[in-house]
Amino acid sequence: MKSTPLRIPLVCGRQILNDGSDGVGHSVDPATGEVIAVFARAGAAEVELAVAAARAAFDTGPWRKMRPFERARMLQRVGEIILARRDDIARLESQDSGKPLRDAYWEVDCAARFFEFYGGAVDKLHGNSIPLGPNWSDWTVKEPIGVSLHIIPWNYPFQLIARGVAPALAAGCAVIIKPSADTPCTAWEFVKACQEAGLPDGLVNLVNGRGSVAGDLLARHKGVDQITFTGSVETGERVMVAAASHAVPCNMELGGKSAQLLFADADLDRALPIVANGVFTHCGQVCNAGTRLLVEHAIHDEVVARLHERTKGMRLGAGLDDPDMGPLISKSHQASVERYYDVARQEGELLLGAETPSDPKLAGGAFVRPALVVGAGNRSRIAREEIFGPVLTVIPFRSAQEAVDMANDSPFGLVAGVHTTNISAALAAAEALRVGQVWINAFGVGLDVEFPFGGYKLSGFGREKGLEALAAYQQIKNVCIHHPMPPAPAGRPDGVVSAD
Ligand code: NAD
């Protein structure tokens, strides 16, 4: 039996609006094609309301007047509420985005960790004192940047909202969240958790809608002081132009074509599952997916055979059934990924991926099989373009230098993996790789919120996660005082005025 679609409202301060001036949108379960939610789409009127609410919350609201430890407790409370609703949020996220349930649980746990981590940071955001010599005092104060806009993609919506919003709130900002029109559902759960934790009205606002309408209006709005954008390079470039139109800074978390370097001395039993998970998680729809496997020539054929064996039996299914791999986000994205299967055939050999899933239960969904490509060089389109699907291109190398050169020969620079038992070789590669994060004999640590994440080159700029993320949401004010000693009164050389 089909269930009634959820209704997702807009949240502009205290106002919860079930209608937006840009009509409604529908969110579809990508495993079935069934509509699971109807959401109000914001137009100009609701964008104005949301920005006004955020401005008022930042400029005159109680958030910045609270003592830091009180704000810290409230943020930590958001994390507790998220964990208390873990099952419901994970199920909704799995259905809305198509990802296997275990990945959706990971997202929810990660979101809660961001609130624990940045909640713990609120009362430690101090400035410095700077020595200028006698009779001068100088210090810096870290102040919140203002109204922070968070534009979110569809692949990890709940986790990515928390990744940006938790440090922004910790720094003292007010926020506006603009989710993707493909995955609007869990953003509303996020806002409800913030409201229940007692965050002041207007501090967290939700503006669903089309990127070209609501997203563009928000990014150009003079009431927005900073933008954190996560999404494609193409849209990121548009958002940068919008940000430049009113001279506000932005964080750009863009795409990737990350390399995994597999040396012949690696422990293959450990490395190959890491390589496979690194590319096939969430059907390859991960910005830092390790989509290029650079493998030492001597083990190339063995590695390809073992990956082939491992990959061909992967079980596809709806996210809620927790399969090895769920669907892509939409039928149109499926068509785009399948076009790359043709490119792979032209540029090399497509060992797996071409067969359309035959299970009738999958017929309504956007399913593709995982693909393995060999024989295409590092300069081929299949090895250079972000496909955002489950396509692993395997390329041999003959020396460590060649491996690093190929890894760096990419327009992107998000992350890289190095698999070897030679720690000197691993450290030399880590030093030479032009990426924001290097993994050695690993490719993710679980709930990795503590250390910085972000790209080189076309993968963007600015850093998310870790204490580094806070800098995007703060301005530094310097205060300087000149306080020369007054001349000593006559009779007392030390300047002390006596009482008698
Ligand atoms: P997208 O660029 O199509 O959309 C991202 C967001 O931008 C959506 O909310 C969309 O509505 C909005 N948008 C679209 N046009 C806009 C405009 N003119 N002005 C303002 N906002 C606009 O990206 P997507 O397809 O949702 O996500 C996939 C991309 O995201 C991939 O390239 C992936 O690598 C990237 N990504 C990067 C990271 C990271 O941390 N580096 C994480 C996840 C995803």
Automatic annotation (TrEMBL):
Gene: aldA
Keyword field: Oxidoreductase
Record-stated family: Belongs to the aldehyde dehydrogenase family.
GO molecular function term, any single one: oxidoreductase activity, acting on the aldehyde or oxo group of donors, NAD or NADP as acceptor
Protein name: Aldehyde dehydrogenase AldA
Presence of keyword Oxidoreductase: yes
Cited PANTHER family: ALDEHYDE DEHYDROGENASE-RELATED
Domain of life according to the entry: Bacteria
Domain Aldehyde dehydrogenase: 26-479
Pfam family membership, one: Aldedh
UniProt-annotated catalytic positions: E253
